[in-house]
Amino acid sequence: MKQILTILLLLSFLLFKNMVYSQENKTIINATKKSKNLQLSLKIINFKRFVFKEIKQPKRKTKNFNENKFDKSLTVSTLNVEGFKVITIKNSNSCNKHIIYFHGGAYVLEASKAHKKIIEYFVLENGYKVTFIDYPKAPENNYKTTHRIIFEAYQIITKNYSQDTFIFIGYSAEGGLALSFLQVLRDKNSELLPAKTILASPWLDLTMSNDSINKYKEKDVILPIDGLIYAAELYSDGENKTNPLLSPIYGEMNNLGDILIIFGTNEIFYPDCLKFIEIAKKSENVNVIQIIGDNLMHDWIVFPSKETDKTLLLVCEFINK
User: CATH number for the domain including 211?
Assistant: First the structure.
């Protein structure tokens, strides 16, 4: 029996070792067969067509983040900023690490149930507090309203939890929003800057003008480029998309602190994530750490998988350092 257990442990170690490869400031997570099969399935059913339809006709009042739907052991408090909900989730064991959570959705979609599960993971398994800002969406609103609301909400939360250490986490389009808001805070009031920022598959350039994108648009089984262009038009409201409030890759990268960026080699944003890293390397007082999913798709971190489990552990390690 002991020999069998030893062999099983050795096999587990070898599988884990093959899945994750680390070097200074960079971790490579290799896609498992299950993840590759999922991407193949999404390609076969043309999942991008479904996403495009959702972007064109975004659902409202989905109630995925209704306060009553969270785990009953959690304390959920809500405030309103000009009619937009700001929800803080914690439990009796929560520490002073406080995540400001920017969900994904191309600036037009409401948060999905997957984001609720990740928030519960951060609170229940790690003892963090999490504040979710249900920011204004396009087409009803544009980027100016979105930035105004999140700034007002963040001021209130940092005042109400003045002893907490804040961390930004942004997914997909709202990874871009998190970075652009980080740049705003640096320029307005450095005292409000978060301790750390995490960008997961961020949309950093709404112009979609990077020539290398063409090499990845077919690899991406989630995001339709025509849908992204449509959403960018709505959110920008006709203004120049090189404005850093819309496309933070055109903004100043100095003095942004520690940033963890997570992205996959099979997503349309891959070239711009690499471009951001190169810009950051030439900037001052910004330290970028990478988690790259080899053969992983856009926003894989919201899909249940071994790769997601490992990535979330690395995210928490980054927060706790």
Answer: 3.40.50.1820
